[in-house]
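ok trying this again, last paste got cut off
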Amino acid sequence: AYFPELEAPNDTSLRCEAVALRAVKEVAEAAASDPSADPTKNTLLLVSHSKVLEAVLARVFGKFSEGIETEPCAFFHWRFALDGRHELGDVHDISFHDCLVA
């Protein structure tokens, strides 16, 4: 743990990734049972705290954890791939730095 009884950013990201994987599988299963569904148009919206967004950006997309800055209502498009080859899409009100940010 980061500090006693406080989750480390890596753990936060792992927990978020598990939730996203479960949700994506549920959406895919629902779409598979509907023959008229277009599997390329499945969309899932996950809303979370900026610290969770930062943890995912660092662990999944290799961004420098201490150099991520978010503004209120920040979000990013996570093109989740079941094979683990995720892509980072549009980013809104999030900036990335190679140094510590206050």
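PB: full thing came through this time. The mean pLDDT is 89.
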